[in-house]
Each structure stands twice: as structure tokens, then as C-alpha cells.
Amino acid sequence: MPSTPIAAAGVNATQPGVDTGAGYILHNWSTNYKTITVGPNDISFVTDPFSSSLAPASNSNSTANTASQVMQINYPKGSYSPKAGPVAGGTSFYAIPFGDDTPFEKMMISYDVAFPNGFNWVLGGKLPGIYGGHPHSCSGGNQSTGDNCVTMRLMWRQDGGGEVYSYIPVSDNSDFCKNPNVLCNDQYGKSIGRGLLYFPPGTWTRIDMVMQLNEPAGYNNGILDVYINGLKSISMNTIPYRTTGMVGFQGLMFSTFFGGNTPDYATPVDTSVFFRNVQLSVGEPAKLYEGNGGSAAGGKIVGSRATLESLVFSVFAVFLGVFFA
To answer: Which of 206, 188, 184 is nearest to 197 (CA)?
Structure first.
């Protein structure tokens, strides 16, 4: 985190400089295409307004409140889904700290999030997560076909409830969608564990979301574990992340806004959410192979990466590390 506050870019900024919140991210995070896709004017760094509230450290690489400055994301009054709303709000960008051409078999996204007291949850909103395959492809109603992309984000719902919001290749009549902890629709993402997560306002909440690819591809044996303040809240081992061995977990999808894509999701007031201690951790690089049979069924290996033995570094608020099962 920066040592001093950094203001947002301002409503007229199209090329944010390094002295703005968006510019700081562009110069210090490995963002795809050096671009903030949505909301460069809504990113700033401010003194921690919840400094007396320390979320539990969840692993050896995590330290609560390592800097006095935290990321503030603004959501202007009337804003909701960036593609649909009359006012842009929140932010969206992708980051590839481990390289654009390196998919991984296992990934963990971790961060602290804090909602102010009195936060109006409306109907819900998106929180950061991870992506695999092609960026920008699995969101906003663009579905996963199993061979193009995958995304796994968090989402807040009414009254501070939460869930995992996923774009994965499943149909509404699949066995996966019949799970009582899964809600599916054919237009947008699949909701996993709705109501099993909770974000209390006025304090920091630590999130750790761990994912492992289904292997062989096409099998329903992918793993998802979600921890809130170090306590496991969601655990599933039936996730179909992909149908072909050419898809793996790729990088950070920092996506947050009110929505839903209808006006009833819009925030009625100017408001903000705060983030700190953002971490992205990966296991071994995924073996790439054609088809859905997997290496266990003789799939054709078309590429792989050498095993990562040690890779731990820091990019302002993002602490990056490698962990192995």
C-alpha cells in the first residue's frame, strides 16, 4: 500500500497519472493491457477508517492491516451494472502477476473487505475474484462454454449476506444445479453458497477462496473452499470448472459494482467499499491438453510450465505467493 493517501483520478481523467489511484494500480499491478476497464475515476487510497478492526490473519503470508492506507472504491448514486447503468460505478480490471500465458491448476484469492456502517446493500453487488482463459469473456451474461473461460467472484446480497458468483459450464438441469446450495439461471452466473457467507458492516472481514481444477477436464470434481476470518464456510468438490484441458486459472479479476443489470440494483446514495491485504496465490502450472479426457485418460499434452518452487513478491497491496497441496 502507498504510505500516503492518493486521490481518485477525477471525473475528466482519461489518462490517469501515477499520482492518482488508478495510475498507481496501472504502474504497480500487472494489469492486462495496462488498462482499468471500468471506473478509473472511482479508485483512491485513504487512511484506514476501520484501523481498530483487525481481521484475523489466515495464513503465513497474511498480516492484518500491514499499512495505514487502504483502497477505497466509490459507487456513485444511481450506479449499477457498468454495461447497463446510467452512471459508471465501482471498478473492474484484470491482473496477471504470474504471466499472461501461464494457467494454473490451483489458485487462491484473499483479501480484507469492509463495508461502512449503514451501508445500503440494495439487492447485491460484485466483489473481486479470479478468472481463467480469456479475460472479459465470462461475465455480464457471457457464458462459459467450458473451453473459453471461467470466473469465480464473491458477491454481497441483501442485509450483508454473501455467495460465490461463478461462470462455469453447467446447464440449469444438471446435477450440479440441483444441489440445494446452488442457484442457476441460463442468463447470468451461478450462485454458490448463498447465505452461507456474511459481511458485517463497520469492520474488516477476511476472505480466502481456494479453487482447484477438475481433472480430468469434463469431470465434476473441481474443488472450492471459502474461508471467512479463517473459518471454512463453503466446501464443495463437485465443481465443473472446464470441459477441455486448455483452460486453467489465470489471474486476478478485480471486479466490484452494484448489480445485477436492472435499475432495482442501483445504489440510492454515493457510497464506498474498502479493500486491503489483497493476495493472489497459485499452485503448480496446469498441464495443457486437447479434449476433455485429461492426462489420466490419455489426452494429448500440448504444453506445460516448469514447477514453481519459489515465487513470493509484493506489488503494493497485492502480496503474491505460491502454495502447494
So the answer is: 206
> What pLDDT does residue 62 have?
47
Residue 120, amino acid: N
Question: Domain locations in the chain?
Answer: 21-50+68-285
21-50+68-285, which class in CATH? mainly beta
**Global pTM value:** 0.87
Burial class (CB in 10 A: 0-12, 13-18, 19+), 97: middle
Element (H, E) at 28: helix 21-28
Contact at 8 Å (CB) between 152 and 130? yes
Instruction: Say whether 176 sits in a helix, a strand or coil.
Output: helix
Query: The cell 497441496 sits on which residue?
Result: 325
Judge if the upstream peptide bond of residue 132 is cis by omega within 30 degrees of 0: no
What whole-number distance in Å separates Cα of residue 163 and Cα of residue 199?
Answer: 10
Identify the pLDDT of residue 256: 98
Give me the residues of the chain with pLDDT under 70, please: 10-18, 52-67, 294-325
Nearest C-alpha neighbor of 193 from the set 229, 159, 233: 233
Over residues 108-144, the pLDDT tens digits come to 999 999 999 999 999 999 999 999 998 888 999 899 9
